[in-house]
């Protein structure tokens, strides 16, 4: 019997207080921040609910593209909801695009809140002050610069999913390669979203092999 739920207070930010959810395909359990919730619109259309705020009965899946595609093809959503649903053919792509958008929004929120800095020198300064909760190194940045940035540093999660153009738009500059987020909730959320994105992304250029213990 699939597990459903009422909306989470505060969405995925309430991860620490949330109970586990069970994937309707794999039957494995996980925290909401590690999974993907789907909701049903008033018109009977299945929609990704990536921050777990939409009302109604939630359907949870592991954050994996193959799992989402399997649920779509085999009618698992309709069985879980016990009703006929309109399930978009591009559902996995919708989830992928939504998660990427959320990552960009989190970095932007951190910048506006004074919890993010850009540039090699500033990032190194924050690292020396032990203020960094996560580092974003542009997907198209150089490996040599990344290694120089992290040399002698403590074990900090490094995210290499966003491009220099996407980071530049956030900071209003021509090009941004290195960004540091202050330790705290936003850095944690960014790492969680990056893990979900890695599981659902079809763009292999966005998901690189893990070459470092600090990388997420």
UniProtKB/TrEMBL annotation:
Coiled-coil annotated residue ranges, if any: none
Domain YlxR: 21-96
A Pfam cross-reference name: YlxR
Superkingdom, taxonomy of origin: Bacteria
InterPro entries referenced in this protein's UniProt entry, alphabetically: Ribosomal_eL30-like_sf (IPR029064), YlxR (IPR037465), YlxR-like_sf (IPR035931), YlxR_dom (IPR007393)
Name the record gives this protein: RNA-binding protein
UniProt source species: Acetobacter vaccinii
